[in-house]
Structures are given as C-alpha cells and as structure tokens.
UniProtKB/TrEMBL annotation:
N-terminal signal peptide: none
Organism: Intrasporangium oryzae NRRL B-24470
Span of domain Dienelactone hydrolase: 26-144
Keyword annotations: Hydrolase
Name used for this protein in its record: Dienelactone hydrolase
Single GO MF annotation: hydrolase activity
Length: 248
C-alpha cells in the first residue's frame, strides 16, 4: 500500500506552474517541502508526525520520486536536473527561486482552507531557503529552514547566499524585526549548508533561532533524523500556530 494512501491527492496551479500536492490532518496549516531526491518515505513519515501533533500538512511533490524509496542512482541525477530547471536557483547568487511565488500561493490556499493566525513552512536541503522566500507573504508566520543547501556552496559567495535577492532578504529581515522569528536547524559540521546560518544571524539578529546539532549528518528531520531537531520544529510550529489559534 502506498505510504500516501491516507493523504488527499490534488494539484495546485499558480504563476504558470502546476505540481501535485498531498494533504492530511486537521488544525493549523504547515507546508512541508521535501528535499532531494524526492518525496521519500522519510519525508512522508515526518509529515505524518506533524499530522499527529495536530497540524494540517500539505506536501507538494516538486521533483524526484514519490512515496517509494528512491533508486540508488536517483539522488545523483536529481541535483544536476535541478541545476538546469528554471524554477530553482542551484548555482546563481543573490536570486530568489521562481518557485517561491507558487509556494506562496499554496500557503495562501492552505490558510484559506484551515484558517487560524497563519501557516508554517518547512524547507529542507535544496528547498530550505524557500521557507524564507515564502515569508514575503504575511500569511507565513512560522518559517523553518532545515539544512539549507542552495545554491550549491562552491566558493565563499555561494556558501553564504540564502537564495534570496537583496530586496527579498530585506523584507524577511523587516518581518523578523516585526515579530516573525525564523527557526534554523542543521548539523554543525554539515558543509553543504555553507555559512548561511551566519548570514541569517547577521541579517535577522535574535529573530533567527539557530539550532546546530553535533555530528556529521545532513537531513536533520528525515534520513539523519535528530530528536532534538524534530522537537524544536514541533515546538516552534506549536507556539507560532497552535498556541496562537487558542489565544485568538
């Protein structure tokens, strides 16, 4: 049986793009963006975990495999494909991925469906920076940046880049100053994340909640799942979304 059998399959179209989506749960909304190589069993399990904590989760299927373990060669093929896909910015610096507008539209649709104070956004690996780009829409009030890996950290400039234009980063910084914190989780020695956490600390100050785990893993919430990372993410989403829903 498919791991997505209990998820409601659909599609979302915006900005000239259409992608499949999977929705499940009740309560405040969270958009979970999968990492490379795709919508794997580990990503789905994390989505199920958030559903169990009382959230309505929407997972867009953006690339790669879905609901089945990827073939051994798939991971090596996904990143080169993303490098030449216009919706992603795997090599350029000072740019916001074009896919961000589609994701903001998905967040607005989710919020219209579930209500509440706003929605959360969890980006992982190559989609890590998308949670920041989604902050340009005020409906996103709980952004989580998990092991951001784009652009590919080849050289110090790319390693420090957070996948946003300077103007978009300024909007993110303003929203942070106005009370929308950002949670970042990564393994401390994960070279793929470059120096992006330093960039975010400088830009957002104390509004960037920086969680760095000991060890040499990468995927903090899935393949190399760290219980402290999951606990911090669930706690952040609960405080920003569920607790605020009860207060309103």
């Amino acid at each position: 049986m498919s791991l997505l059998a209990e998820w409601e399959a659909g599609t979302h179209s915006a900005d000239g793009l259409t992608y499949p989506t999977y929705r499940r749960g009740s309560g405040p909304g969270v958009v979970v963006m999968h990492e490379s190589p795709g919508l794997t069993p580990e990503v789905i399990a994390f989505g199920d975990e958030l559903v169990g904590h009382g959230f309505t989760v929407v997972m867009p299927h953006l690339f790669g495999s879905s609901h089945a373990p990827p073939r051994t060669w798939e991971g090596a093929r996904v990143i080169p494909r993303l490098c030449v896909t216009r919706e992603f910015t795997m090599l350029g610096t000072g740019r916001t991925a074009p896919l961000a507008e589609w994701l903001r539209s998905l967040a607005r649709e989710l919020h219209a469906h579930v209500g509440g104070p706003g929605v959360g956004a969890v980006g992982m690996c190559v989609t890590g920076g998308f949670a920041l780009a989604m902050m340009l829409d005020p409906v996103v009030i709980a952004p989580v940046v998990a092991q951001p890996a784009a652009p590919i950290p080849l050289g110090p400039r790319r390693a420090a880049d957070v996948n946003l234009t300077p103007d978009d980063l300024a909007v993110v910084a303003r929203r942070a100053r106005e009370g929308c914190p950002v949670l970042g989780v990564r393994y401390r020695h994960d070279w793929v994340t470059g120096t992006r956490f330093d960039t975010l600390s400088k830009a957002l100050g104390d509004a960037f909640i920086r969680v760095e785990l000991e060890g040499h893993g990468h995927s903090t919430l899935t393949d190399h799942r760290h219980p402290d990372a999951v606990e911090r993410v669930v706690g952040f989403l609960t405080e920003r979304l569920a607790a605020r829903s009860m207060d309103s």
